[in-house]
Amino acid sequence: MSNPTTISGVLDAKGLKIAILATRFNDFIVDRLTGGALDYLERHGLDAKNITIVRIPGAFEMPLVCQKLATSGKYDGIVALGAVIRGATPHFDYVCSEASKGIAQVMLQSKTPIGFGLLTCDSIEQAIERAGSKGGNKGVEAAAAMLETIRVLEQL
């Protein structure tokens, strides 16, 4: 029996141009996600001059701005970072659902890898855990997923 062909992404960011989309809403959490993503990308060879950080109001605006970034032709990938924390109304459910669906739709239509780093948490404590505490840093994970996807797509 012969060995199957395996395609996997090398975690090397050299030569790429990346946009980091970061919401201002809940910025005390999002700033930690952004810091994690920046650190990860730079440690994997991305020159800081090839990173553009775009700040926007909140999660609901993420799909539109991702679309503009993806269709600009300027970026190899996008890291989308935000934090929505559940409140007392159903607003949380609508924002999270529409932002998630919209970002996925942009990625599929534009064929641009987007690292999904939108935290959808029930409490501030959960958000803190996922922004560099005991739950790791989801900004790092979103950057890693985007980078690996870029490198896999290059081989397909």
Automatic annotation (TrEMBL):
Copy the pathway line from the protein's UniProt record.
Cofactor biosynthesis; riboflavin biosynthesis; riboflavin from 2-hydroxy-3-oxobutyl phosphate and 5-amino-6-(D-ribitylamino)uracil: step 1/2
Q: Which UniProt keywords apply?
A: Riboflavin biosynthesis, Transferase
Gene Ontology MF term list? 6,7-dimethyl-8-ribityllumazine synthase activity
A GO BP entry is:
riboflavin biosynthetic process
Q: Which InterPro entries match?
A: LS, LS/RS, LS/RS_sf
Q: Residues that bind (2S)-2-hydroxy-3-oxobutyl phosphate, according to the entry?
A: A88, T89, R130
Keyword GTP-binding carried by entry: no
What residue range is the signal peptide?
A: none
Catalytic residue positions: H91
Q: What is its EC number?
A: 2.5.1.78
| Keyword match Transferase | yes
Please give the superkingdom of this protein's source: Bacteria
**List of residues binding 5-amino-6-(D-ribitylamino)uracil:** F25, A59, F60, E61, A83, V84, I85, F116
| Any matching Pfam family | DMRL_synthase
Q: Which reaction does it catalyse?
A: (2S)-2-hydroxy-3-oxobutyl phosphate + 5-amino-6-(D-ribitylamino)uracil = 6,7-dimethyl-8-(1-D-ribityl)lumazine + phosphate + 2 H2O + H(+)
User: Gene Ontology terms, cellular component aspect?
Assistant: cytosol; riboflavin synthase complex
HAMAP family referenced in this protein's UniProt entry, alphabetically: Lumazine_synth
Family that this chain belongs to: Belongs to the DMRL synthase family.
Q: What does this protein do?
A: Catalyzes the formation of 6,7-dimethyl-8-ribityllumazine by condensation of 5-amino-6-(D-ribitylamino)uracil with 3,4-dihydroxy-2-butanone 4-phosphate. This is the penultimate step in the biosynthesis of riboflavin.
Q: What is the protein name stated in its UniProt record?
A: 6,7-dimethyl-8-ribityllumazine synthase
